[in-house]
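debug: dumping io for the single-chain case to check the tokenizer round-trip. Nothing else runs in this session.
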Amino acid sequence: MHARRPLIDIYPVGVLACLLGLGRALRARHRDAIYAAYSNCRREVRYVVRSVRARNWRVAKNSFNGYLAEHRFRGTRCGHGWTRRRALRDLRRHLAGRD
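debug: decoded output
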């Protein structure tokens, strides 16, 4: 029997995803994982700094979205927020048509 996938996916993006990955690597205390996660965080921060210097504000803003919530079938809008609950609430607002 296959496990059913939920209709709404909630996942971290941008800087929050890097920080969560670094935290997991530090808890695991694995040197290669820590180095890879640290490199990933540095790469993300450099990307944001480069975007700000180029005055690409949309990239800089989207790097700090936190969590994204997407519905698998309905709509193209997604909810975002610093917590999973906030991202889900924002998605429900988009799906209800109250933009």
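debug: round-trip ok. The chain has one domain: 8-96.
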